[in-house]
Amino acid sequence: MGKSPGQSASAIESLLSERSQFEQWLAKLAASSAPESVREKVRADYEKRLATVMVSLREHGDAIDAELRRHESNRDDLEKREASALETMSEAELRHSVGEFDAGKWDEISRSQKAALDGIRSELKRVREEIGRLSEVQASIAGEDAKEEPPPEPVRPPAAAKAAPAAVPDNTRTAPRPDRPKDELDFLKSVAVEQSSSLSPQAAAGNKLPPEPPAPIAPPAPEPTSARPSEPASPARSSGSSSQAKTLKCGECGTLNRPTEWYCERCGAELAAL
Questions:
Q1: Which of 42, 68, 96, 263 could form a disulfide with 106 if both were Cys (CB 3.0 to 4.6 A apart)?
Q2: Whose CA is closest to 116, among 70, 77, 84?
Q3: Rounded distance, CA 266 to CA 241, Å?
Q4: Closest to 140 in 3D by CA, of 71, 254, 210, 54
Q5: In Å, what is the CA distance from 173 to each residue of 150, 166, 179?
């Protein structure tokens, strides 16, 4: 047969009282002037007994949760009652101020509501303290459970396999260089033959572009005319003119000239015809 809620609450209260007592003893033990060895012995005893109490409280975990929910529900109800008592007092005060309630009735309502408020607030204070204590016990139990759980093993990364040397692809290997011609003269001749073949009429015929039209030829510029009229050409002299006697006299300078001359050999004046 399971324990009744009253028995569970009584056991929890007893365990909480023991827990509080051991915590107070441990706090006072730290300020004691007893020898260190004695203090360590007593401290170890208190800590051991406190751990036993915490184990018992852990066994009542479900009962503690139920007790905590009961106190929280009671707190909500008390807060509603407090708000209702305050509203009743405010309403009575308003009715008294407007003249509906006389002084005697207002005093009666005020005293009764104040007494109710005092009881509600006292009970509400106790319930809130109990909620705080039970919440602290829950936190302590959760902390003890976390301490007892083994820490998770660290996840070790898989051992990195040794990277194999990257294979060199065949297309990255250096291609063999072509042998240079042994005779430089033969090499130059082959280059000249290739150039001449590219300039041959057969190669030119392969070009599909139409031939460019010839550039128009500009007409020759007219020769500039001389300001002076060209002198008439002297008649051709015979081969024997050099042996003719100078018998024609210049009327200007008196120089004798050959009879076939048109102008004076000295001054250039025009000679009169015979």
A1: 96
A2: 84
A3: 18
A4: 54
A5: 58, 14, 18
Residue 31 DSSP one-character state: T
* Alpha helix (H) residue ranges in 60-102: 61-98
Supply the pTM of this predicted model: 0.43
Phi, psi for residue 21 in degrees, rounded to 5: -65, -45
Nearest residue to 131 via CA among 209, 199, 180, 68? 68
b (16+ CB within 10 A) / e for 54-72? beebbebeebbeebbebbb
pLDDT in tens, 119-138: 999 999 999 999 998 888 88
What is the distance between the alpha carbons of residues 264 and 254, in angstroms, rounded to a whole number?
9
Between CA 9 and CA 66 the distance in angstroms is 10
Q: What are phi and psi of 173, to 5 degrees?
A: -70, 150
Identify each DSSP E strand in the chain by its residue range: 248-249, 256-257
Task: Report DSSP state, residue 101.
Answer: S
State both tokens at 67. 């007790």
Q: Are 248 and 257 in contact (CB under 8 A)?
A: yes
pLDDT band, very low/low/confident/very high, at 63 (cuts 50, 70, 90): confident
- 182-225 per-position pLDDT tens digit: 556 666 666 665 655 555 555 444 454 555 555 555 555 555 44
Q: Residue 185 belongs to what H/E stretch? A: helix 184-198
**Residue 3 to residue 7: CA distance in whole angstroms:** 6
